[in-house]
Amino acid sequence: MTTTAPEAGRSPARERPGPRRRPLTLRRRESRAGLALVAPTLLVVAAVIGIPIVWTVVLAFQRVRLATLRRSGLFGEFTLSNFDRVLHTPGFAETLWTTLLYSLGGTFGSIVIGVVAALVVRRPFRGRTLVRASMLLPYVAPVVAVAFVWQVMLDPQLGIVNDWGQRFLGWDAPIPFLSQDSTALWTVIAFEAWRYFPFAFLFLLARLQAVPVDLEEAARVDGATPTQRFRHILLPQLMPVIVLLAVLRFIMTFNKFDDVYLLTGGSAGTEVVSVRVYQFLTARTDVGAAAAQAVVLAVVLIAFVAIYLRFFTARREA
Amino acid sequence: MDRDRLETVSLRWLRRLVIAAFLVVTVLPFWYMLVLSVRPIERLLLDPGSLWVPVSEFTVATYAEVLKAAEDGGQGFLTFIRNSGLVALAATALTLVVAIPGAYAVARLRFFGRRQVNALFLAVYLFPSIVIAIPLFVVFTRVGLRGSLFGLVLVYISQTLPVSVYMLKNYFETIPVSLEESAAIDGAGRLGIIRRVSLPLAAPSIMAVALYDFMIAWNEFLFALLFLVDKPNRWTVSLGLSLLSDGVEVPKTVLMAGSVILTLPIVILFFASERLLTEGLTSGAEKG
Where does the ABC transmembrane type-1 domain lie (chain A) (predicted)? Predict the structure, then answer.
């Protein structure tokens, strides 16, 4: 390793007597400093994330209601009745199925749009910075605001979509996108794809710009057309990022609460698991059932991700 | 015309078309929000398809209604803005105080369990927030922190900390070790090195993380809904806006004015720091 002298001027001039230490002690000092520095972070994570996760599991096996909360102890009797209640409340299977469709649709949509977006702004053109910034707008804007804009735009009476649809596309009657079963889930998925394609776009664009120019140039000289270059040069380069994005987006969409809750409130066949957990917690004030439902969510999610990773790593080795 | 030429020409046009489509799809909703917020509701009902405000229709009465305090017949958004701002700033500051040393340690120092810590942050980041929400809801109800902004700040740290550590770690890793070593040889202690070498070099990325945290906290909705719903004077802008729509006959134009108020600070922050943010978020992504 090299030592660059120029920076020395900025470092403190405090002279310590005899900084000579044996390598072992230096290493131990480093280890100790590392633990000391990371300790606050770990403590906070344990306090606001670790303990709550464990506690949810504990609550899932207890009979707890909001009304009895102040009196009940931490470790009461354990029971399986919460899971029984959760599994047998009407709509359990439908909710899981909806969540799965919603997550798959949202993930697929956001990645496909993200790839297209990354491809079109890859090369410099006038106004590129502005276009790139606008493409990130849906992602950075507050969810409550964008959900309301979508609601108003899709509104059957005063929404611009139905107005234009009737005027220019010849629709016979306004379509209540968010309140009829046949369109609500698709609309929510479209919202998800719209709001999160920038996330995929950012990562894909960063990867695209790291693809060596020579590689494409060589393919062009060899007579590969643009689509062939995409198929055989760019896509293989993007694949690892796409695979990673698919896992990330799937997990995040699977857990999503805000978007569905704000757009439809879970009505018209769009109830996803986290909205259901919220209903158990607030409308029914059944903390135990809510926790059990949340545990089911986490377990199903972990199972899906495990299968996906397994399948993918297996295919890669083959 | 051969295939290569055909593809090149048609793709060139397709590209322009697609860029235009992207602009429409991403910007139009925000433009629509802005237009609606300055139109009277009666006019909107007559002509819902307009994307322009005639000067004669222009009104800011919607904003007045949204911002005025509840006692004066408004929706009290000024209070909400203050609440949101306080909570977001506090959460950002606390997150950074905890995340910077942690990220530095994970990036630079070899200590027992370093790799596990690394994995832990990713796992925690991806864990469903509704799972965390239930026990926090229970605890806060018990100790009386429900309805307090301080409690909310604590919860927001759980949302911002993992991603902040991850982003900062990626950046600290790009700082050449030799710089720190030369400082060490000159007799700087570990904290001295962090303060005088690493932090100044990481300043842009710390700024990016701070902005990102602020946005997360400002935009957050679920926890605000769970913890603050009974205390109208503590509502954040997101929560206030979402409950506005449940209210008795609040016109959509007023709702849009509220949406603009909620969105504007974020959009301004974002455009002011777009480059910083984009690079901060994906630094390290090109490793594949």
Answer: 96-308
